[in-house]
Amino acid sequence: MDYFNAFWVGGLICALCQILLDRTKMMPGRIMVMLVCGGAVLSFLDVFEPLLSYAGAGASVPLLGFGNILYKGVSEAVDSQGFLGLFTGGLKASAAGISGALIFGYLVSLFFGPKMKD
What we know:
81% of the residues lie in helices and 0% in strands. The chain is mostly helical.
C-alpha cells in the first residue's frame, strides 16, 4: 500500500504541474520555484510531515521535499544561531543533495556528450 500511496500522490502533484504547463503561460522554472516554496509553506503549516508519512517518496521527490529540507534547516539554524541562521541554515541542510546533483551531473556529462536539438 505504501507504493500505491506514493504513486498516486506523486502522480497527482506531477499531473497538476503538467496542467499548469499546458493551460497557463508559466515557464517550468516558475513552477519548480512554486513547488519548492509550496513545500516550505506546507512545512511551516505542519501539513508536510503527515503528507510525508502517508505518501513517502511521492510527496518528497517532486521538489516539495526540497522546500521542506530548506525550511527545516533554516528553522533549526535560526533557533541556534539567530538571524544569521536565515542565510546559513538552508544551505547546510541541503548541501549533500545539491553536491550530489552537481557531482553526478558532471560525471554523466563526461560519458554522454551534449547534443544540439534540430
